[in-house]
Amino acid sequence: MIFKGNLFVLSGPSGVGKDAILERLLGLVPNLVKSVSFTTRPKRLGEVEGKSYYFTDEKTFKEMVEKGEFLEWAAVHGYLYGTPKRIIEEFVNKGVDVILKIDVQGGINVKKIYDKAILIFVLPPDFEELKRRLIGRETENLRDLEIRLKNAPLEISKISYYDYAVINDDLENAVDRVRSIIIAERHKLCREKIEYFLKLFGGEFNERT
pLDDT band at 188, cuts 50/70/90? Predict the structure, then answer.
């Protein structure tokens, strides 16, 4: 019996370490794939088309919105970001878990559309450490850096919409915490699983009260 896969969302303010956590997870957790988002943001040094993002222009992005090709999309830090719908549906229906690394606003939108999505919020140890990491990666110009630092408290204020919080004080520990969440969610019961086990071993379905 193949059950549907889970949809995980990994969010947090810029510079918190989402990319590093995700790359480690993909090498450690079997049956887990990353969904690559579309963006109008310029490509950074070291980013790879189709692996980091699908980089596109604003006109093409808006055409995709009109065609309903995104599960969700949002304007973040002055650029557009969108999550492709078809690819996610194909993996989930095959029993493969999908993880999205998207902004906080996008994560909230995913939950509204797909209420079974599991949202994980990654936090820095404190704001000064977040600022140090963001400045240290040297991937933004001064204007973008200021925008991301200004938006960080606003993003963190949305944490109540999320299911889990993980503090990235140490990369290996943060990866292990997220991995534990994924493993636990894979063993979580849902109606589909309950009905399967009852059919296999006998018994009657009882609604929770």
Answer: very high
Bridge partners, residue 74, by sequence = 81
What phi-psi label fits residue 108: left (phi over 0), alpha (psi between -120 and 50 degrees) or beta?
alpha
Torsion of CA 88, 94, 96, 101, to 10 degrees: 0
Rounded CA separation 95/90 (Å): 9
pLDDT tens digits, 122-172: 999 998 898 888 887 777 677 878 888 888 899 999 999 999 999 999 999
Answer whether 6's CB lies under 8 Å from 185's CB: yes
Q: How far is CA 52 from CA 34, 131, 136, 202, in A?
A: 10, 23, 20, 47
Taking the C-alpha atoms of residue 103 and residue 97, their distance in angstroms, rounded to an integer, is 19
List 84's β-bridge partners, or say none: 70
**φ and ψ at residue 171, rounded to 5 degrees:** -60, -50
Query: Measured on CA atoms in the order 72, 73, 76, 81, is the torsion positive or negative?
Result: positive
Write the CB contacts of 167 (distance below 8 Å, at least 6 apart in sequence). 122, 123, 124, 125, 174
Q: CA 102 to CA 105: how far, in whole Å?
A: 8
d(CA 17, CA 171): 8
Q: Of all residues in the chain, what percent carry a pLDDT higher than 90?
A: 63
Q: Enter the pTM of the model.
A: 0.85
